[in-house]
Amino acid sequence: MSSPSPAPIADAKLNRRVIGISIGAALGGFLFGFDSSVINGAVDSISGEFGLSEAVTGFVVASALLGCAVGAWFAGGIANRYGRIRVMVLSATLFLISAVGSGLAFAVWDLMLWRIVGGLAIGAASVIAPAYISEVAPAKFRGRLASLQQMAIVLGIFAALLSDQLLAEAADGASNELWLGLEAWRWMFMVCVVPALIYGIAALRLPESPRYLVYRQRSADAAEVLRKFSGEQDVDHRIAEIERSIGTEERQSLRDLRGNKLGLKPIVWVGILLSVFQQFVGINVIFYYSTSLWQSVGFDESQAFLTSTITSVTNIVVTIVAILLVDRIGRRLLLLIGSAGMTLALGIMAVAFSTATLNADGEAVLNGPWDSIALVGANAFVVFFGATWGPVVWVLLGEIFPNRIRATALAVAAAAQWFANWAITMTFPIFADISLTFAYGFYASMAALSLVFVFFRVPETKGMELEDMDNVEIHRGKFVTVGDNRTISE
User: Fold this and answer.
1) How far apart are CA 228 and CA 58, in angstroms?
2) For the domain 12-206+248-489, what is the CATH code?
């Protein structure tokens, strides 16, 4: 049995409209990337300002991620009750509050509190953006449009690193005063007010998700969104499918995720493990700690900032590659390529750091060609991650679950992702204290395991309508019809 072919977009004008609203929703990803990475340039200054140990510094950096897990967990339920747009506006408001509070923090506990508030916004945005885009996008273009979330994330990371660099250079050091008697690292947080305002205003101009509108018995409004923005030609048929798929949604609970084996349905475990592996390869170590990392192996502050910024630009370029490929060659092949490439790149970094020597201050220094080799390995890692696991996991989380459990399953998978992110971010200073070879060796082993996982357990979803997911289950890494072994997607 093959999946029904998606209805084509009616014309170029409608195509531009669905791109426009997808970009508007993906702005949440920009704040996600900006707010989560802005601390990169401030880590050393915060540690010096408040006299923090390595372990406490790691907890401060990771504190926002605890808020992310909570925000992701509750976002689906709130969005089902009040709508996707209101959650976006709430996220923008929390982003703004967090930016000001973090910039004016007077103690480490105060800073962590405001970072957790920002984390609530990041977690909510990380769930709502892919869900919203998947619900408004035609199946034919859903992969590319959902990848805009990752593009916005990497643009946000780049903007954060660039603004950190500019502010640090303007003050001749992140710890020095810049404007109004406040140090540059404080302004690094407060500039997030600008994108928070832009996101909030943009969200107010977006149409509500047609799936939420049908859920709230506003089928006429849903039909208008489907015709005007999604380019749907058979609107009545699509609304009937949505009504069928959400018939039991009001009774959704965690009990609906239960399966016969290992406590949860196989497809839920696939979503959770995709999320965990995306973080356990250590990508956020590059973006949270890269400035400190490069300084620790001999780069001065300016060179470290520049290197981090170049890495972020690389991430942007390869995300464009992913957007071009995800609907052509599929999600599964991209993940396999990414896992293999990341394993190799991380292995190179582990070997490079094994050659480091200690200077008079007890700091590790890379000698000879190894500093360049480590830099090449780091950027190769970012290339393979950014072109594959970065965007593709968000695409899959937005589309892989049946509609009857999507909100709950997506919340669980996203919360697992943020907990995994927190664990990696929290443990990196400890791993690095053991040795950078140990740290990157661990991440390389996780990348290798992700290759095995994708090969045996991750199915292909390219071209499938969201409503088709209700009639399928995962079996040996493929989607099959319920009660049947005939493949729907291979």
Assistant:
1) 47
2) 1.20.1250.20
Q: How far apart, in whole angstroms, are the C-alpha atoms of residue 354 and residue 366?
A: 9
- Report how far apart, in Å, the C-alpha atoms of 359 and of each of 48, 160, 216, 351, 430 are: 21, 31, 65, 19, 20
Q: How many CB atoms lie within 10 A of CB 17?
A: 17
Look up residue 208 and give its DSSP letter.
P
Tell me 472's DSSP state. Answer: E
Helix (H) or strand (E) holding 275: helix 266-280
Which residues face 475 on adjacent strands?
Answer: 478
Tell me the C-alpha to C-alpha distance, in Å, between residue 275 and each of 57, 94, 270, 393, 464: 25, 24, 9, 7, 21
Report the distance separating Cα 160 and Cα 312, nearest Å. Answer: 10
Give the tokens for residue 356. Answer: 């480091």
Q: pLDDT of 273-298, one tens digit each?
A: 999 999 999 887 765 555 555 665 55
Instruction: Return the amino acid letter for 129.
Output: A
The whole-angstrom separation of Cα 389 and Cα 397 is: 12
pLDDT in tens, 43-91: 777 777 777 766 677 677 777 778 888 888 887 778 878 888 888 899 8
CA distances from 237 to 133, 244, 467 (A): 20, 11, 11
- Burial of 440 per CB tally in 10 Å (0-12, 13-18, 19+): buried
pTM of the full predicted structure?
0.70
Dihedral, CA of residue 144, residue 451, residue 4 and residue 473, to nearest 10:
-130
* Nearest C-alpha neighbor of 397 from the set 96, 143, 139, 75: 143
Q: How far apart are CA 142 and CA 217, in angstroms?
A: 25
Whole-number Å distance between alpha carbons of 472 and 489 = 10
**CA 332 vs CA 46, 274, 397, 455: distances in Å:** 41, 11, 13, 8
Question: Which residue do the tokens 């009616």 mark?
Answer: 10
